[in-house]
């Protein structure tokens, strides 16, 4: 239903049980009194930040200049200066939100600060920095943000167990969300075993919304069929609704019931990335369509203003029919050729890369402000090693391999799903997991080299694998006994190319400190082991598919 005339939309949203948070923070917002005004007049009861927000904040106004010059004169490192700036701002934000925190019994009035995104694949380092952030800000209404990477899950459990409240961020897939809920409960169980008061530990799980539609819609446009185009603009909300259904299911399980009886707080679902990217869609759709009691919606200022002006509420929260429709939509996507698993995997990698890029931008800006007399220490190409031509060629080389890795990952997934042999399925499932990690490693290397991923190339790799299904295996569209042989040979060629890439980068590592020689050696060694396993699968497939035919001709 529309908001009744005369009722402020944000007030109605808050009354519906949705916590309105602001996805923005800056010294300008704090010092100018705007955050206080938003809390008092716009029903804002929480704030989230991320590296992109801080990088943007530093570019506006001169409120950071004096502190940065002082830090520069004291010989402070750039990383330490970034830490000082961000924790100071977040501490100030916590103080503004303190009355809300007290009024809501600790549920709202929260301000989030993210661990250094460069630590996302290092659980131990993430834990160390989470402790440092918690101790430095030293406010009970802080949330430490930890990305929901595989390594991040380990850190989340450990940090929760220590009594540190966490905002788990960068969640895109339903499977990863279930892992996050499991990690939270595991942390609570450890905290309980250690004698901690569970009611003091809070958490939210930030499930990203609009980016899902952006990536899916791009792929549907590439497919271009009427069936594909009819699915545009619906995936993000469907994905989020299924996430909430998973949350409801979790709260009904005995494991959670035991924790709740011991005083544990629920880990509220938080809808993040709710700013609409496609101007053809309603600018409040990721708020209006996700009005569910007990959830949080963190909005950029433009979305907050838009909803305050003309936001509407639905007739009812999601029902069983809505969940069924959401599930049917994801199945329709798969049939149309848009792999939702690959979408969410891609979005996680891109999200980490974007935050790392923003962190680098923030560090560069801080460095310039701390030492304005030094000027820009990089040459005009931005490359620390080699000239502009070699940097460009390396970028092409890495993107070609990333595209191949995208197609290869899809091939591994399909081969694993199609396997009827239990042993082969087990091997291919593990190789698929390793191929996913290897592509992540390549993305991290590219981020370290400041080489942006060409998503058009990556899409071509994905489409090439799809087209590769139409092979001369005796059957045009369906599998034949020859399919296993051809797939094994294709996977062998792909891993050989991957191994060559690692060896090439290992050569560059001898003169470029941005590469980790130890990591590249480990990747090359793993590729060698993958080749051995694939050769065994190939031989087995040849025996099954071809030898009987040779015998039958005698």
Automatic annotation (TrEMBL):
It catalyses: D-sedoheptulose 7-phosphate + D-glyceraldehyde 3-phosphate = D-erythrose 4-phosphate + beta-D-fructose 6-phosphate. It is found in: Cytoplasm. Its EC number is 2.2.1.2. Pathway: Carbohydrate degradation; pentose phosphate pathway; D-glyceraldehyde 3-phosphate and beta-D-fructose 6-phosphate from D-ribose 5-phosphate and D-xylulose 5-phosphate (non-oxidative stage): step 2/3. Keywords: Cytoplasm, Pentose shunt, Schiff base, Transferase. Belongs to the transaldolase family. Type 2 subfamily. PANTHER family: TRANSALDOLASE. This is Transaldolase. The gene is tal.
